[in-house]
């Protein structure tokens, strides 16, 4: 089935679905085939909302529409009305408990489907019933109007095509959910550190992370947390204007460059911070060079050693030192 280019103005008259008899026969045939293959089992509530792409369109929408009306939400990440409508449709899919299936299609990633359905603006909501596509509404419509449209859709799907929806096993998700992990040996200390950070108690956060590392020196979360807390503690009493002035006037003063690099990183200027310390290591020697190197390694921990900017800066430092 090729989706038709349909008008998106307002809510359509669902009673005007064409080829109802033929579609009903196809739906019945598909249900028989699904039963023969062992289909039709109850689904968990989480299966009532699915993400669909071009590759899975026939399987996830066309074939499923032979057993349940499929409502399609065309959306995009940048679309603010989509962020209002999407959660509402998901909530209604759960509330209607299998009377319809909600398929979400990201138009940015599925341009072909957007063109086939003739989408002119988003959010746009279509339905597919027994292989027949029809538009429902465009934009973030009021909830009462959406409910009325869904009720009409479900009524037509049942009366004209014999689609009564799919069974939902309300306990399936709970049964399949993994058990909550047991509390780790350092969870209380890590939680205390986060609480201290949130309250501005940087010294308390530093101490809590150090308590974890005293027992487990390689604990990744504690290492990252400690590096971040110590950075915040270093910059909290700085005069940014004076620090910038000192760094500009004293390019070979390692203390000035280290302070400016800390400010760079807190301000989100990661590559500036790294570059500043690499340059400080290049123009100095002895203890000053080592101080720049050690601070750079500390900042690597703050950003994360897997970050590509860390990889590049590590290579630049190696070239300076060796």
TrEMBL record:
Residues 37-155 form the Thioredoxin domain. It comes from the Bacteria. Pfam families: Thioredoxin, TPR_19, TPR_20. PANTHER family: THIOREDOXIN, MITOCHONDRIAL. This is Tetratricopeptide repeat protein. It comes from Streptomyces noboritoensis.
């Amino acid at each position: 089935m090729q989706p038709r280019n349909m008008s998106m103005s307002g809510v359509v008259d669902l009673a005007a679905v064409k080829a109802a008899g033929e579609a009903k026969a196809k739906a019945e045939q598909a249900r028989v085939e699904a039963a023969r293959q062992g289909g039709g089992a109850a689904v968990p509530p989480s299966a009532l909302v699915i993400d669909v792409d071009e590759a899975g369109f026939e399987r996830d929408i066309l074939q499923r529409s032979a057993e349940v009306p499929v409502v399609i939400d065309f959306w995009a990440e940048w679309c603010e009305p989509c962020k209002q409508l999407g959660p509402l449709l998901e909530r209604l899919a759960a509330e209607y408990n299998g009377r319809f299936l909600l398929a979400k299609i990201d138009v940015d990633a599925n341009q072909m489907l957007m063109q086939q359905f003739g989408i002119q603006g988003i959010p746009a909501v279509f339905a597919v019933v027994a292989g027949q596509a029809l538009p429902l509404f465009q934009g973030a419509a009021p909830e009462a109007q959406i409910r009325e449209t869904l009720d009409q859709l479900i009524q037509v799907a049942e009366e004209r095509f014999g689609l009564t929806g799919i069974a939902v096993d309300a306990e399936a998700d709970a049964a399949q959910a993994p058990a909550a992990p047991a509390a780790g040996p350092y969870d209380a200390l890590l939680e205390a550190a986060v609480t201290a950070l949130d309250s501005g108690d940087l010294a308390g956060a530093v101490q809590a992370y150090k308590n974890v590392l005293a027992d487990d020196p390689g604990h990744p979360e504690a290492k990252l947390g400690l590096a971040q807390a110590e950075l915040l503690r270093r910059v909290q009493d700085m005069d940014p204007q004076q620090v910038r002035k000192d760094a500009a006037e004293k390019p070979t003063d390692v203390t000035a460059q280290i302070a400016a690099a800390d400010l760079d990183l807190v301000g989100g200027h990661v590559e500036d911070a790294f570059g500043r310390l690499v340059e400080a290591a290049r123009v100095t020697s002895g203890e000053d060079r080592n101080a720049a190197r050690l601070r750079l390694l500390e900042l690597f921990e703050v950003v994360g050693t897997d970050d590509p900017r860390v990889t590049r800066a590590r290579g630049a430092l190696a070239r300076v030192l060796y």
